[in-house]
From TrEMBL, chain A:
Pfam family, one: PCDO_beta_N
Name this polypeptide is given: Protocatechuate 3,4-dioxygenase subunit beta
Keyword Lyase on entry: no
Keywords from the named record: Dioxygenase, Oxidoreductase
Family: Belongs to the intradiol ring-cleavage dioxygenase family.
Region span, Disordered: 1-23
MF annotations from Gene Ontology: protocatechuate 3,4-dioxygenase activity
InterPro entries: Intradiol_dOase_C, Intradiol_dOase_core, Intradiol_RC_Dioxygenase, PCDO_beta_N, Protocat_dOase_b
Signal peptide (from-to): none
Intradiol ring-cleavage dioxygenases domain sequence ranges: 45-229
Superkingdom, taxonomy of origin: Bacteria
Gene name of the encoded protein: pcaH
From TrEMBL, chain B:
Keyword Oxidoreductase carried by entry: yes
Domain Intradiol ring-cleavage dioxygenases: 54-82
The name this protein goes by in its record: Protocatechuate 3,4-dioxygenase subunit alpha
Molecular function per GO: protocatechuate 3,4-dioxygenase activity
InterPro entries according to UniProt: Intradiol_dOase_C, Intradiol_dOase_core, Intradiol_RC_Dioxygenase, Protocat_dOase_a
Catalytic activity, EC: 1.13.11.3
PANTHER family reported in the protein's UniProt record: DIOXYGENASE, PUTATIVE (AFU_ORTHOLOGUE AFUA_2G02910)-RELATED (PTHR33711), PROTOCATECHUATE 3,4-DIOXYGENASE ALPHA CHAIN (PTHR33711:SF9)
Keywords for the protein's UniProt record, in alphabetical order: Dioxygenase, Oxidoreductase
Species this protein is from: Sedimentitalea xiamensis
Family: Belongs to the intradiol ring-cleavage dioxygenase family.
PROSITE patterns: INTRADIOL_DIOXYGENAS
Pfam families reported for this sequence: Dioxygenase_C
Amino acid sequence: MTQPGEFYQRDRSIQPPAFTPGYKTSVARSPRYSMISLQNSVSEITGPRFGHSDIDAGDNDLLTNYAKAGESPIGERIILHGRVLDENARPVPKTLVEIWQANAGGRYRHKKDTYLAPIDPNFGGCGRTLTDENGYFYFRTVKPGAYPWRNMVNNWRPAHIHVSVFGTGFAQRLITQCYFEGDPLIPICPIVQTIPDQGAIEQLTAKLDLNATIPLDSIAYKFDIVLRGRRSTLFENRLEGN
Amino acid sequence: MPQELAYLKESASQTAGPYVHIGLAPGAAGFEIYRQELGRDMTGPNAKGERIRVEGRIIDGMGAPIKDVLLEVWQANADGHYAHPEGGGEVEEGFRGWGRVISDFDTGEWGFDTVKPGATRGRNVGTQAPHLNLWIVARGINIGLNTRMYFSDEAEANAADPVLNLIEWENRRGTLIAERTERDGMPVYRFDVRLQGEDETVFFDV
């Protein structure tokens, strides 16, 4: 029987560990025993798939998906676009990308957010889309504001957009955050700094993409997302007695 | 210099944060925006097999339930097939086998309705005991935690399961086995996940 190709082992040297005391909430929420390493079975190489019946065409436009007719959210209008690729640099087509963010003042539309910056009546703060056949996606939104949070007494999150991606197998499931080039809060953010590798932090930092801006309308940032790659050659690897 | 390898590196994970609901379950954040929220109906109307409910809590290292957690579930149908081209076979029309659930803001309790999955093919030979694959994210969790839930009424299959048997410490295997009870004639499995402590749940690096 031919075995399906597994995903490449996750490179834990560029991923944040569970226990990161600088981000205090992680202390009580981090497992302490070693994870059990699991070679992929059918349970890990498969994952949910989504189609155009699941979402609507306007779901990726945060400028309009919650705004009253003829109105817009306050803030810097941006296009966030990029591709979902795997570690083999191949596009991941037809995969679900979901985002959420604070408004331009740094306030979330969430019943648990009590920051004094105001809710924007025309901004929901979430969007979703499927990548096309080339792995490409785009959103229209406003640039989120920085905001304070309770960790140290005086911590501020850099402007960021939360991003959730699926891929083709459940082992690729990923939630991350997109930061913006030039933000002085990035190097002093305890959540960013849970990532032990500077290159990996830069990979989460979207770059201004002047060519993709719409003149006199919206500025653009490019943000590519990389999911785990899969072995393409199928060598048998039979374990004794298993 | 040897040749360079042209692989990309996986994007680093970041915590889902306290407001994950806005993106993945906006109704819970307090507003309606989408035609439908995803992951509510795991099975569709045509799924064969036993209808079950799964409930639990995610408990932190202080012994407190986490009240802002989000779980995703990935499972096979009653025949042991995943809804995927490499999933082992056909599934019923409308069966997805994927669910998304959040904990209650006051109690930390979560729960979902599904069908009990069948045994799935093993990595090499044999089968894996029926199980649910769980992925857990929350504020304070830097990278999603992968674990599995097995069923207490599958003792024989569990004893032969290649993944449970990978766990060197036999006393830890029980952290992955949900206890079956009944409520109003419906099977209810209880699965509490403990992030720390002597009875820390087994997590997998998949």
